[in-house]
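Per-residue structure
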Amino acid sequence: MLATLASTSHPTCRLPGGGFDEDVMSLTLRSLNATDATCNDGTAASFYFRPCCDGATYEDWCNTSTTSRWFVVFGDGNSDGWCWDAESCAARAASTPSLTSSKGLPKYFRRDGARHTDAVGAFDKTGEQNPNFYKAYAAYVPHCSSDLFTGASPAGSSPSFRGNTIAKAALAAVRVEMEALGPPWEVVIVGGAGIVASLPELRAALPAAAAVSAVCDGCVLLDLDLDTQQPPTHPHQRHRQQQQQQQGRGAAAVASGSATTTTTPSCDKADAHSCPPATTLPGAAKLWHASLRDDCGGWRCLLNATHHRPSDPSDPSSRSSSPLPLLAQQPLYDEQTATAHATADAETLRAALLESLSGADVVVASACAGPSDAFTRSAFSTVSVGGGSIPPPTFASGLYALVTNGSRALVDTCTGAGCNPTCKRGSSVVVES
C-alpha cells in the first residue's frame, strides 16, 4: 500500500517548467505554531522540514519500501553551547544572535551555501553520495534557547528557556506529517546530551508504533573528575582538581541561591566550552528550570549521556523496557573538550572520550579535532573512520548499522589530532543554518 502512496501522494521534486522545486528538495523554514515554544528573546521558535519528493528519474524517487524513514535533528549536538547566568546569556546574545532568536533565519537550511549536497551530511539528496538516506523525510530544529533543549522556564520569563517545550512541539509537528502518510515509520532522533537525557518524553511524543532510535552527535560533555569518580593522578589533573574545588564553591552558591550568580569567573562568558561543564551546568539547570531525570542525578544526566541511556517506554518486550538503540559520535581530539580541559594531555582526553562513548550500541570516533557535530556536515560521509574495509567506513556506515539494528565500533587507532588524513577533507565552516 505504501509503495503505491509513494508514487501518487508525494510532492514532485521538479517544477513543471524544469529545475528543482526548492520547497520540497530543501529543508524549508516552518512555524511550530506553538505559542509557548519560544527562543531566549521571546520570538517564536521555528523548524525546517523536508518531505520525500518523488519524480520520474532515479534521483527523484521517494520511498518504495514499506517503511518511511524520518530524521529529526535538534541543533548541532553540544557544539552550540549554552548559557548559565545573566552575564553569559547576555554575552551569547551579543556574540551569536542566531543561537538566542529566530529572527533572520534563512528560508532554506544550508551549510557552506549548499542545500542538497554532502555539505549537509545525512540531509544530502544525492543518491550516489548518500544512497541509504537521501530518501528520508527530514526536520532540523535550530537551538535558540541556550539550554541544550532541556529548559522549561515559566512562560513569559525573560530570557526564555523553553528548549524542552520546543523539542516536543517540533515532534508534534513532525507527527502530523507522519500520520498523514501512515505507518510503518522509522524515526531517528538526533541531538546532544540534553536530547539523549530527554529521550523518554521525546519518544512519547511520537506514535507508539514507530521504530525509534537515537544519535548522540558530538554529545560528550566531559568532566574528568566527575565522570571517573577517581582522584586525579596526573599532575595536570591535580591542578584541575584544585581549580574546580575553588570554582565549585561558586557553583554551590548558585545551586542554593540566585541562578544569576556568576559561577565561573575564569570562563569566557560567550563560550560555554571554555571551562569544564561541571562548573556551569549546576547553575544552568536551575536557571533553565531544566526538565532532567532524577535517576541519573539531574544536571549530571548531561555528563556521560550514553551511560545514562533511558529506556523506551513503548517497548512491550520486557517489564523494564529496553533502551532505545543509540549511536554516539565524537571526534577523539575534540577542540571544545580540549579547551575546557586545557591542562589535560590529548591522549588522556582521548581515553576519557572513548569511555564516555562506550555505552552506545554504535560508536563512531575519528581521530579528528572538529567539528564535534557531524550529522549535518560533510564529515558524515567524507571522513573515513577505523579503516579495514573497502570502501572505508564513515559516520554514514555507523548510522546504517544503527537503523538495521546492528552494533558496531568505528574507532580510529592512529593517535594524534588529524592523524587520519580524511579529517581535513571532512571539516566545514558553518555559513548559515
